[in-house]
Amino acid sequence: MNQPSAGSMDKKNSFVLRHLSDLRPDLWWLDSDPLEPEARSSLIGDVGADLCVVGAGYTGLWTALLAKERDPHREVVVVEQYETGAGASGRNGGFCSASLTHGFGNGMRRFPREMPLIEEMGRQNLDEIEETIRRYDIECDFERTGELRVAVEPWQLEGMAEEARLRNEMGDHVQVLSRDEVRARIHSPIYEGAIFDSDGTAMVDPARLVWGLERACLSLGVIIYENSKVLRLEDVEDGVRVHTPYGAVTARRVALATNVFPSLVRAARKYVVPVFDYQLVTEPLTPTQRESIGWADREGVADAGNQFHYYRLTQDGCILWGGYDAIYNFRGKVQRDYEFNAETYATLAGHFLKTFPQLAGIKFTHGWGGAIDTCTRFSPFWGTAHLGRVAYVMGFTGLGVGATRFGAQTMLDVLDGVDSPRTRLTMVKRKPMPFPPEPFRWIFIRATQWSIRRADENQGRRNLWLKLLDRLGLGFDS
Q1: What per-residue confidence (pLDDT) applies to 9?
Q2: Nearest 5°: CA angle at 475, between 472 and 478?
Q3: pLDDT mean across residues, the chain
Q4: Which residues contact 24 (CB under 8 A, 6 or more apart)?
Q5: What is the pLDDT of residue 335?
Q6: In this predicted structure, which of 9-18, 59-68, 82-91 has the lowest mean pLDDT?
Q7: How far is residue 1 from each of residues 268, 322, 336, 337, 341, measured CA to CA in Å?
Q8: Residue 374 class from Cβ within 10 Å (0-12 exposed, 13-18 middle, 19+ buried)?
Q9: What is the mean pLDDT of residues 47-72?
Q10: How far apart are CA 103 and CA 90, in angstroms?
C-alpha cells in the first residue's frame, strides 16, 4: 500500500506521524526473548503415528497435548511448515477470552438456546487453560485481569445493561460502568461507559504461551517436526499418509490445525478468508505517563464499535494497541509484504492519541500485522474428511487464544468418536455460510466493510446491505 506523501500532510497528520518515527517492522513478542526454543528438525523419511497433527500453533499444540493426556500411549506427531507459533499464535495481542463465540452478542444471535451451556463451557475452558499453565509451569505472564468493553460514542451503550443481565443469569460476572466509573479506572476523555467482565479474560504473552505448550508436548513424548510443509493427504489402508517434501507420516487419524493457510481439505477453503490485523507497541511509559492514564488493574480493553480497537498493558509497561482495520486482499493472498502497512499504522496512531491525548509525544517502537482466519459467523467450525479419519477446526476470527483449546478438544472428540456435550452443539454440527467465489467475494467483503464503517459514523444505524446480511444470519458487525 502506498504511503501518503509528506506534501499532502496537514499539520495534524504530521503531528501523528512523528510518533511513528522510531517504528520498526518487528514482532514485539519475539524481540530477543530468551525463552524462544531451539528449532526442531525437519521430517526426513517415513514415520508412523496414531495421530498426526498438521500445524504447530495453538490449535495444533493443544490437540497434541490433550491427545497425550487422554492416552499417554498414543503416538502423536506434529508437522509444521515453518516454526512453532510462526502464524497467528505468536503474533496476536494476548487476549485469552472465555468466549467461544467471538463475544456474547454474536453467540446470542446465532445460538440463543445453547448459549447458557456455551458460556459455561467457555468459563470451564479458561479455567482449564489456567490450570494447564500452572501444571506445566509455562512462563507466559498469565494475568486474569478481566476486560473492559468501552463505549466511545453514546449509541454504543445501547444494549449493555440487557447483555449484563443475560450474562449474569448464565453465570458470568459482569457489570455496567457509567462514564465516571470507567474514566476513574482508565483516564480517557472519550469513554462514555463500559461493560466490565471481571474474570472472563486473561492477558498472556502469546509467543511464550505457544512455546510453553510446545515444551509441554515434548515432555509427554510428542514428536514435532518443523520446516516440513504438508503437500497432500493420501488415503491408505487403515489410515492417511501425510506427505511432506522429504518424508511422510502414516497415521490412523489426522487433525488439521492450519488456521488461515489453505486447508488440505479443499472443500473447507470456501468457509474462511484471510484478513490482516495490525498492532503497534509503545515505548515503556514513564511513571508520570502511567499516572496520567490510571489503569491500575491492567484490564484488557476493547472498543464497543463495529470497527474496534483492542489494547492492553504489557509486563514492562508498554501499551499494545491494535485492531480497527481488517484488510482483505483480492483472492485472499497472504504475503509477508502485507505484514507491514504504513497507512494503517498512521490510522492506529491517530486513534491512540485521541484516546490518550495526555500521552502525546510517546513513540511507537514496533509495528506488525498478520492474517486472521475469518468465517461468516466469526466463531470456529468443525468438519471431517477422508471417511472420518481427518478432522479440522478453523474460523476463530481473531479470538482464538482461548477458544483454540476448546476447538482442539472438540476435534479430538470427533476423531475419537466420542459423543460429548461439545459434539452435540449446533455450532459444532453446522458450518457457517460459505463465502462466494472471486470476484464476488472481494466485492462482498468490500461492501460489508464500507457499510460497517458507515454504521459507526451514523450512530450504529445499519444500512440495507447490513440488514440483508442480518436476515441471512450473517450479522457482520466487527
Answers
A1: 46
A2: 155
A3: 92
A4: 365, 366, 367
A5: 79
A6: 9-18
A7: 30, 18, 13, 9, 7
A8: buried
A9: 98
A10: 22
pLDDT of residue 201 exceeding 60, the answer is yes
Please give the grid coordinates belonging to residue 285: 511509559
Contact 163, 468 (CB under 8 A): no
User: What is the C-alpha end-to-end distance of the chain, expressed in Å?
Assistant: 23
Distances (CA, A) of 401 to 15, 65, 311, 407: 35, 15, 15, 11
Query: Does the pLDDT at position 405 exceed 50?
Result: yes
C-alpha cell at 199: 474474570
Q: How many residues does the chain have?
A: 478
Query: For residue 461, what are the CA distances in angstroms to 151, 191, 306, 392?
Result: 16, 20, 11, 37
Here the cell at position 332 is: 485472499
Nine-digit cell at 47?
Answer: 514415520
Pairing mode, if any, of strands 232-236 and 273-282? unpaired
Spatial contact of 191 and 133, defined as CB atoms under 8 Å apart:
no
- Are 195 and 164 within 8 A, CB to CB? yes
> H-helix or E-strand containing 400?
helix 400-416
Distances (CA, A) of 74 to 61, 106, 222, 270, 318: 15, 37, 9, 33, 43
**Closest Cα to residue 99, out of 460, 405, 372, 305?**
405
Q: SS3 breakdown of the chain: % helix, strand, coil, rounded to 5?
A: 40, 25, 40
What is the DSSP secondary-structure string of 3-45? PPPGGG--HHHHHHHGGGTT-BSS-GGGTT-TTPPPPPPPP-E
pLDDT score recorded for residue 4? 44
Distance between CA 308 and CA 306 in Å, rounded? 6
Q: What distance in Å separates the CA atoms of residue 143 and residue 331, rounded to the nearest whole number?
A: 39
Pair type for strands 364-374 and 239-244: unpaired
